[in-house]
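Wed. Picked up where I left off yesterday with Dienelactone hydrolase domain-containing protein. The coffee machine is broken again, so keeping this brief.
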Amino acid sequence: MTLTDACCNTQPTNAEWQAKGEDKVLATKVEGHERKVYRTGPKDSKRGVIAIHDPLGIHATTLQFFDRLAVSHGGFQVASPHMFKDGPAPTSVLGNRDVFWAWIAENGDYKKNHIYDLILAAVEDLRADGCTTISIFGLCWGASIAIKAASEPGQPFLATGGPHPSFTTIETVKDVKCPLILLASKDEADMIPILDSVKHNDFPVESFQKRFDNVRHGWCGSRGDWSDPEQLKAGLEVVDLLGAYFAKVATIAEAKS
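Structure written out below (tokens, as returned):
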């Protein structure tokens, strides 16, 4: 798996944003534990999106990103589960690749930490609130988690991917069941070979990638600060690209139903 130095070393920012949504407890427990999800967006939308935060948790720019996505392209009910039962990665693990990787392996392992069960609980929450179509994306590590969830047999998602995707390789996407949208920063590897590897799949829309070589890894999540005009411009473009992509796959699915 690929883990960029920027992912291991970059501290979260002190950005500010007044959250538009709120936390709620999921109706379904995961391995006997109550878990929370951040929910934002118009409650009458029938289009849902699962948003997986990065290892440092839900910070101000993460919230701004999710809140802005939720009101883009006609609106989505966005659900971001709090992914780590014992809380996000402490900043003390940053600066040492081995320590950071060990924390993720312990707290963010897809199978050991019942991550797909948590995602499905968030899907049930969206469906209970009227969503009939659902896509999934993530930030950093969260993008690889979103792709794994969208590779499960019988998975419910129409599209997957996300910005500044860490741990994402040709091997990661080999079983994906829906189209990919990958939006790399200057710190990630070339995404074109990854998309080329899934071209043989008969997806309803073509997978998509774009590079943002003027911004660093993490700018849409905990390491982002959209008071920086360059980061804001790139961030708003990601909001527009993701919103348009998720609206497109939802429109196709709705036409078939």
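Quick read: The longest helix spans residues 229-256.
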